[in-house]
UniProtKB/TrEMBL annotation:
Protein's recorded name: LmbE family N-acetylglucosaminyl deacetylase
Gene3D superfamilies: LmbE-like
Record carries keyword NAD: no
Keywords, sorted A to Z: Zinc
Keyword Zinc: yes
């Protein structure tokens, strides 16, 4: 089990969080992000698709995308995130292509994060709705970008030679929405659960039944705390945390 308290408590972290759609990070990690920013960490978001295929109203996709951009910016601000990048991929068509990976590597080299947060690339068979193909593609693109591309000067050499973006070794990858057997890190968000819910409520185009959404999220977070053995009355978010470049990591092995 990974001790997440040491990451939250230092306040010296720089975090880059990737979601497939506007609202994905708010479901999976907004409480953790609120805790990080409250401790002084800098967190930036990257949303890969415009979310143009989401929602329940008969609205033009371009208008949907515009609204969802605004919703995500508002949600991010509620957990202390000031910078939101949008890759502009089409909702429902995201792939771990080299074009997408190049964009991810570019952003990682620019931000140089201590922790990268992303969606899990493995499907959850117990609730397949949690494994939207765009979620899996987000996780796969980020994972493949982290190793080896972002740290390899020969990967996408134009980023180094034309843009001056030096290779960078990412220390940690935290994947949310993991199958339960992969979970190894739980963050106590009891103090920040209200901010998480405020962020989720910002996505008004996505919630035809706000009360049902809130009840579901609370139940999931309570169950996370039980699995993480955090104690009675606690609320948590769960991750599959991977030490990409630890002190004993040997390059290429």
């Amino acid at each position: 089990m990974i001790d997440t308290a040491k990451f939250i408590g230092t306040g010296a972290q720089r975090v880059l969080a990737f979601g497939a759609h506007p609202d994905d990070l708010d479901f999976g990690a907004a409480g953790t992000i609120a805790a990080l920013t409250a401790a002084g960490a800098e967190v930036q978001y990257c949303i890969m698709t415009d979310g143009d295929a989401g929602g329940f109203d008969d609205r033009d996709p371009e208008e949907t995308a515009r609204l969802r951009h605004e919703e995500q910016k508002q949600a991010a601000a509620k957990v202390g995130v000031k910078t939101v990048h949008f890759l502009g991929e089409r909702d429902g068509f995201l792939e771990a292509s080299h074009d997408v990976m190049r964009k991810v590597v570019r952003l990682m080299r620019q931000v140089r994060p201590t922790i990268v947060i992303a969606m899990h690339p493995e499907r959850k068979w117990d609730r397949i709705q949690a494994s939207h193909p765009d979620h899996l593609a987000c996780g796969e693109a980020v994972t493949r970008a982290i190793y080896p591309a972002v740290e390899n000067p020969f990967s996408y050499p134009e980023l180094l030679h034309a843009e001056g973006l030096e290779p960078y070794k990412v220390p940690w990858l935290w994947l949310c929405g993991a199958p339960q057997e992969r979970e190894n890190a739980y963050v106590d968000i009891t103090e920040f659960f209200g901010k998480k819910m405020d962020a989720l409520r910002s996505h008004f185009t996505q919630h035809p039944d706000v009360a049902a959404m809130e009840n579901y999220v609370l139940q999931q977070c309570e169950e996370n705390a039980v699995r993480g053995q955090l104690g009675k009355g606690k609320i948590a978010e769960a991750f599959h945390a991977v030490a990409v470049n630890a002190s004993d990591t040997i390059a290429g092995f």
